[in-house]
Amino acid sequence: MKLKPLKIGKHTIEYPIIQGGMGVGISWDQLAGNVSKEGGLGVISAVGTGYYQNKAFIEKSINDRPYETINFYSKRALEEIFKNARKICLDKPLGCNVLYAINDYGRVVRDACEAGADIIITGAGLPTNMPEFTKDFPDVALVPIVSSAKALKIICKRWTQRYKRVPDAVIVEGPLSGGHQGFTYEQCFMEEYQLENLIAPIKEEIKKWGDFPLIAAGGIWDHDDIVKMIELGADGVQMGTRFIGTYECDAHENFKKVLINAKKEDILLLKSPVGYPARGVKTKLIELVEKREGPAIKCISNCVAPCQRGKEAKEVGYCIADRLSDAYEGDLETGLYFTGSNGYRIEGLISVKELMHKLVNGENS
Fold it and tell me: Can you tell me the distance from the alpha carbon of 268 to that of 249, in angstroms, rounded to the nearest whole number?
């Protein structure tokens, strides 16, 4: 199958492949810039930008960690990340992923628009007020991530009533994705919640509100998977994990080695302070947390609202901001290594150019 271009709002992406936003620091300027350059949509993660270039853009740190939300989600760092990504992809569309569960969500969305994002993608909650923060940027396309037709209905209803608009596209994420899931632990294993069974009902919901693209995400690995999703009714796909296996991915070399060395049984659903199950690799950290011997929880960065300033972190046994940033810095003892269900299939590194060629044309092309 020849893959068709994907139009999201006023922006046309040459191939219907969106690179998932992965934080802390897994998809920043190098990965996102190169994916956009090669015809996909590169997506910069807004999570933990204070860690960019060894925390060069923050005003204050404590224990070498960005202090408070304003530094953890650093505007200056995000601007620098976009500037450097633009040097790679020039005027091709570039996205930004801003989680709804974060503190300062509205401010970070505006920061991303001012930094030059063409498309804002938001998951980890229902972004019912997303358009409020982009009204000064009419060309910026808005793309919520949902896991059910009901969730899309709520978003479309609120957006129509309050802002007289609907999403420019919607990403439908099934329970095989990396990081946080939009399902309970039990639902992640139930047949009706698997990605291939979510597409048709959400497609029907879209028809009630107009016509905008549906992008399938979660567990998509190769050209055949992309074709399967398009045949099921999707207009494009979002893929995160496979892009970690590229030279250009902003992740630390140790992060890439953790996935290269992982076996299928090492990839688990974990409890998270964000309040959703999260998929990652069983590492030394997970063993320590299970024994309640994990690193001290101090809530320096105040990253996500559901955590309630470290209350939920203490419940589950780790601080998500500190542990994801440790993974970004390559700490094998205390890092939290998120991955989708196919992470164990990464056997080595290739270039973004080569990966995009395989995704567009097939593995043996």
Answer: 22
Q: List C-alpha distances in Å: 290 to 26, 294, 295.
A: 26, 8, 12
Domains of the chain, first to last: 6-251+347-361 (3.20.20.70), 255-328 (no CATH)
In terms of DSSP bridges, do strands 179-180 and 278-281 run parallel, antiparallel, or are they unpaired?
antiparallel
Q: Which residues of 182-215 are buried (b: 16+ CB within 10 A; e: fewer)?
A: bbeeebbeeeebbbeebbeebbebbeebeebbbb
Which of 307, 310, 308 has its CA nearest to residue 298? Answer: 310
Which DSSP category does 182 fall into?
Answer: S
pLDDT bracket for residue 272 (50, 70, 90): confident
Q: Where are the alpha helices (DSSP H) in 309-362?
A: 311-316, 320-328, 352-361
| More confident of the two residues 363 and 79 | 79
Whole-model pTM over 0.85: yes
Place of tokens 């009706």: 192
